[in-house]
Amino acid sequence: MTMKKIFPLFAVIIVLVLAVCSFHIIPTGYTGVKTSFGQIQETTIQSGKLNFCIPFVQSIHKVNNKQQDKHIEAQVWGEASDKTPVYAADVIVTYQVLPEKSAWLYANVSDIKNLVGDELVASAIKSAMAELGPNEVTNRTKIEPLAQQKLAESLVQKYGEDVVFVNKVVINDMNFEDAYNEAIQQKSIAQQNADKQKIENEAAIAKAEADKQVAITNAEAEAQKTSIAAEAQAEANRKLAESLSDTLIEYQKIQKWDGKLPTVSGGNALVSIDPAE
To answer: Which residues neighbour 146 within 8 Å (Cβ) at sequence distance 6 or greater?
Structure first.
């Protein structure tokens, strides 16, 4: 094959390769940023469209707009509102870059793959810890939304509004230092013992009060019994006194007399009648 035949064929292949390389399609979940001689165009290229760029002059760069996870395994130490030491570990931050800001990010941020850095996440978690007391700081329903809010505020301060959106913050491990947990355990035991003693004291007081009421009731019953007996005896005596009369007494004497006359001894002797004789 002569050079005259090889050169046209080679030229056609080059043209075809350049033609193929001149067209780009941005996949779903991404946006494109076009540069010309290194200068970034402000218009963001949307996904799913065929885009042309001049070979060796222009290029198209992809920006990930999918939800991405930032995973921090290390412990992040902070303090609750009362200065109690507490840590968070195994933190997952889900975020995404808003498509409308892809070109701005590519033009102004050198490392768009590390938009949510470890230091930014740690600072947000510490700020959230400082606003919660020891009873709430390890509660995930409390700390996670607050940490998400703090991180979103930090990202706005760093990149501006509507650039990076924080979808969720998950803290899988959160606890106090061992000394605090030990103190909490001892406090719990002491409280349980105090509650038990309180119940026992209340039971003893209740029993003493019940015994007192029984004694009072018995004493009142005995006093009432004595009073009733005294009243009955007094009534009987009254009725007996009322029933006695001189006639009745004389009658009883006559009933007891055996018919014998009294015995007289001497001139001055006394005469007596003994009913018992």
So the answer is: 128, 131, 132
The CA distance from 30 to 63, in Å, is: 5
Torsion region of 97: left, alpha or beta (phi above 0 gives left; psi -120 to 50 gives alpha): beta
Q: Rounded to the nearest 5°, which phi and psi values hold at 191? A: -65, -40
Domain boundaries, the chain: 15-64, 68-176, 179-255
Interhelix angle 140-159/118-130, rounded to 10 degrees, is 130
> Cα(238)–Cα(236) distance, rounded to whole angstroms?
5
| pLDDT tens profile 126-159 | 999 999 999 999 999 999 999 999 999 999 999 9
Whether 112 contacts 124, CB under 8 Å: no
CATH code reported for the domain at 68-176: 3.30.479.30
Hey, CA dihedral for 105, 108, 113, 115, is it positive or negative?
Answer: negative
Q: Which residues contact 131 (CB under 8 A, 6 or more apart)?
A: 81, 146
Do the Cβ atoms of 86 and 129 come closer than 8 Å? yes
Which pair of structure tokens corresponds to residue 102?
């892809």
| Segment among 27-36, 131-140, 256-265 with least mean pLDDT | 256-265
Instruction: Identify whether the C-beta of residue 62 lies closer than 8 Å to the C-beta of residue 41.
Output: no
Q: What is the pLDDT of residue 7?
A: 63
Measured over all CA atoms, what is the biggest interatomic distance in the chain, rounded to whole angstroms? 205
